[in-house]
Amino acid sequence: MRPSVTGFDVYDIRFPTSEQLDGSDAMNPDPDYSAAYVVLRTDGPARPEGHGFVFTIGRGNDVTAAAIEALRPYVVGRPAPRSAADLAALHHDLTHDSQLRWLGPEKGVTHMAAGAVVNAAWDLAAKTAGLPVWEFLAAMTPEELVSLVDFRYLTDVLTRQEALDLLRAAEPGRAERARLLRAEGYPAYTTSPGWLGYDDAKLVRLAKEAVADGFAQIKLKVGADLDDDVRRLRLARAAVGPGIRIAVDANQRWDVPDALRWMAALAPYAPHWIEEPTSPDDILGHAAVRAGQPVKVATGEHVANRVVFKQLLQAGAVDFVQIDAARVSGVNENLAILLLAAKYGVPVCPHAGGVGLCELVQHLAMFDYVAVSGTREDRVIEYVDHLHEHFTDPAVIEGGRYRAPRAPGFSARMRPESIAAYRYPDGPAWLARRPAQEVIS
Ligand SMILES: [Mg+2]
Prior knowledge:
This protein is α/β, with parallel strands linked by helices. The chain has 17 helices and 12 strands. It folds into 2 domains: 5-132, Enolase-like, domain 1, CATH 3.30.390; 174-418, Enolase-like C-terminal domain (TIM Barrel, Alpha-Beta Barrel).
């Protein structure tokens, strides 16, 4: 008897990160890193579980959890997904509900909720296969991989046949690249030195530590005050020297003219890219920023779906595509985005950090290297060094590189004791922070 999904548990989990200003940037001064988290339970003999989540930064995590809950009828009672066909069908059902679609379409909370459930299903299927997700994906045929993608709205730029041709062209060498990944890992960069809430001394100390730890790239948050940013970038450049890449990230803070003015002032310190200079929906604005100043443009962590990525690439608006594992509708839509980037020859440098995003997205970048783009050239995965202790298979960095995950699944499983402690609003970590009178009444 094939196992079925018998349980669908949704949790609102929040970490009080705003207390340390970890994660502070020009748009998000006080995030409490959070996960609207879902566990798919099954009745198979080994009872494998699938774990997935949406990352949020605090308030609204309950709204996201409710959106995940709305997808329960599509999952409970379904045979536990195992194959590309199962995962394609589930992705289709979760993103094509005729009533829920009205809330997007294919963007925002409902879309991210679908992504959490899709990713949980991938975790479950990969565990059932006994493989980490990157290897599970990289073991699929080009035909299976193409079957996972929703090509609606893409075929003016990328047809099924073109995607198949790209994947077939990358088939030779898959085994060798997988071997190299296991031996060498995948290059990372770190954002840990550059949070806007850190003072200059902490910035300089952490920048030097990052280089000593083997990172060849760091990232600084910018966008609140130009004089401060010039000073911070100058200090960082002096700390790391000319051979280390320093990316800067404005987190959508600017209008296009602000971005041009700001980047003209920062350009002398040779930033590697400017990330999210303006609204993630403003394709032509990104193109104008790219054309109007000398620094390369990166975006993607808030790009809603494959259609916006398609247009960013069509318009020549980006130099780097920053996929996020928990923003779009999961592995399936990220596969579409990897294929679009490969068609345009634009490097994918995934967004990570938050809680659990490093754990997830490393699998997609490694799969991209093995089976889609075939290269690690000009590619780096973001790394932020916090909250990994809450995961049972945490991302591991050695010498500035992600080590290839070996445990089956998506590295998404949070420790049960962390879920219990940080459940909002009634986990002990949150009860301890409530004003005394509130706890009594
Ligand atoms: Mg960013």
